[in-house]
Write a structure and sequence with these properties.
alpha/beta, 11% strand
């Protein structure tokens, strides 16, 4: 549709077709009977493209209006464009949907699960190796709601990058090293139980962690013992490492079970422990480069003031020579680039780690690693108020179990649940979908307050509503009385509900592209929520069974396409679309 328009515009303006194509945007669908599908072109943006760097400036409204009228006058009216007008410093093109509706639905049908994920014609696309580090629980600390955010967001980032054609490696970097592990080990000697550890490792290690921290606040000697334990680990003490290995194995087994429930798979599990020795190599390299200095406290520091005002003295080693988390992160980044040759490495960690990531990039740049420019921080805010009925949620599996239990209760109160073959699996899927959408529908960097009742509603902006819409569209398809043919008459899809749904389908790639550029899932989430509302309105108004066959099949093809696009959006966010619920 845009091809003819950009060709004519390029002839009139002298700009290249690729330049013009990305300037023309579809206007969002408004559920009004008077709404007409349209494209828009910002006249200020067009003015900037036509101006040289020296003459580029904010144009006066009258100048922009003259530009718009001159361009509109020169354009011949294309078959699929009803009229061209200048409105509010934009050049608007009203679209004739009957001329392009078949092309829209054909594209969805032909591309199916790939619809919306193709690079734009104006992009100089290259397949890249993208490494995404996410989830990354700390074995010495609880696997909690904060890790749920990192897990869901990282899963989305990896899914989207992969769907856009890139070579993606999903990495889980376990926090299995450091003084906090020494505190857990010392605490286990005092508060631990081998029986409880074997029965429920994550819960028991959490209980030990809480008691150990409380005890350390009262007795400084406990923290000193923890430091000594960790130093023994770094020096290769067999007994210390045996305890560490046992805790690690128990924990990773439990983590894997949670990831399976979420549908999350990792290509590699790494741990801080892998980089204890390599961190010492980093310190040696920094000393050889004369970048490492000794502080008054005897620690090893580096001046990174070039990268941030508060980074004049960044510590990389303790006074006893032990490495720090940052040092091990530097060693890990170097090792990953040597092993995988990534073009881009994305860390999905909360916004409190912003300074840490700046320090990481700063150290790597000081070491002359130019690939450090490919490091990106996808940061996120906190979840507030996430509780079970028994109190504060601590463990991630408690959150998943709570979501499933609440959904089962809601399903039991609805007659449609009797048709579901496996209520437990459906409730699990619905609960996880609810958590995913709640987490991804807003700007990632914002904190948000969690509300179980609102999250699990079957109406409104919820994951349950998306699943309900998908299942409803699938039932329309399954319940069609006749065998589907190739009949399709675009002119029959003339109702406002049909045209609005059609035009929205054509805009999926816009939301995908924006989400990928910004690494913000909210654009896709917002798109599929609006798609669900438009599809539901259309399903209420446009009957399939009982209509004349040509009309029925034209409508059915529209609903099938809507379901395909909805499923594409849900899957990239991390949901599994349900056919029945």
């Amino acid at each position: 549709m845009l091809l003819l328009l950009r060709r004519e515009l390029s002839q009139v303006t002298g700009l290249t077709e690729p330049t013009l194509l990305h300037l023309i945007k579809p206007l969002p669908v408004l559920p009004k009977k008077s709404y007409q599908p349209a494209l828009t072109l910002s006249l200020q943006t067009l003015h900037d493209e036509l101006s040289s760097e020296q003459t580029k400036k904010r144009a006066a409204p009258a100048e922009l209006e003259r530009l718009g009228k001159n361009v509109a006058r020169e354009l011949s009216c294309l078959n699929h464009i009803r009229n061209i007008s200048v409105e509010k410093q934009h050049l608007n093109f009203k679209v004739s949907l009957p001329d392009i509706s078949k092309a829209i639905l054909d594209e969805v049908t032909d591309q199916q699960e790939n619809y919306g994920f193709h690079p734009k014609p104006w992009q100089q696309w290259k397949k890249r190796k993208i490494l995404v580090e996410f989830s990354s629980p700390n074995i010495a600390k609880p696997f909690h709601a904060g890790h749920l955010r990192s897990t869901l967001i990282g899963h989305f980032v990896a899914n989207l990058s992969s769907r856009m054609g890139h070579d993606v490696l999903r990495l889980n970097y376990l926090g299995d090293w450091g003084t906090q592990f020494g505190l857990l080990a010392i605490g286990f000697q005092k508060f631990g139980s081998v029986k409880d550890l074997t029965r429920d490792p994550i819960q028991h290690l959490f209980e030990v962690y809480v008691k150990s921290n409380a005890a350390a606040k009262k007795d400084p000697q406990i923290m000193e013992s923890a430091r000594k334990f960790f130093t023994a680990m770094e020096q290769g003490d067999d007994d210390s490492l045996s305890i560490w290995k046992r805790f690690r194995e128990f924990s990773t087994k439990d983590y894997t079970a949670v990831y399976q429930r979420l549908g999350v798979v990792f290509d590699a599990y790494h741990g801080e422990s892998q980089y204890s020795e390599k961190a010492q190599d980093v310190l040696t390299s920094l000393r050889d480069l004369s970048l490492l200095k000794s502080s008054d406290e005897g620690t090893s520091v580096i001046d990174l003031s070039e990268y941030g005002k508060s980074m004049s003295k960044v510590t990389l080693a303790k006074s006893d020579g032990s490495s720090l988390y940052l040092t091990r992160d530097v060693a890990a980044a170097i090792d990953r680039h040597q092993q995988y040759g990534f073009h881009r490495m994305i860390y999905v960690v909360d916004k409190s780690q912003q300074n840490h990531l700046k320090q990481l990039v700063g150290v790597l740049k000081e070491m002359k690693y130019s690939w450090a420019d490919g490091i990106q921080h996808v940061q996120f805010g906190r979840v507030l108020g996430m509780q079970t009925r028994t109190g504060e949620v601590v463990l991630l599996r408690d959150i998943l179990e709570e979501a499933k239990t609440r959904m089962l209760e809601r399903m039991a109160n609805k007659s449609t649940s009797k048709e579901v073959e496996d209520p437990d699996s459906v409730a699990e899927c619905l609960g996880i979908s609810a958590l995913i959408l709640q987490d991804l529908k807003s700007t990632l960097n914002m904190d948000y307050t969690f509300d179980w009742d609102r999250v699990l509603e079957s109406q409104g902006d919820t994951g349950v509503y998306l699943q309900y819409t998908h299942a409803r569209l699938k039932s329309i398809e399954d319940n069609y009385d006749l065998e589907m043919t190739d009949q399709f008459t675009p002119e029959l899809l003339s109702e406002p509900e049909a045209e609005q749904l059609l035009w929205h389908l054509a805009q999926f790639e816009e939301s995908v592209e924006r989400s990928f550029q910004e690494m913000e899932p909210k654009h896709i989430a917002s798109y599929i929520l609006r798609l669900s509302r438009l599809a539901s309105r259309a399903a209420e108004k446009l009957r399939v069974n009982g209509s004349e066959r040509a009309l029925a099949e034209s409508r059915l093809r529209l609903f099938i396409s809507a379901r395909m696009v909805l499923a594409n959006g849900m899957r990239v966010l991390g949901m599994t679309p349900l056919d029945k619920m």
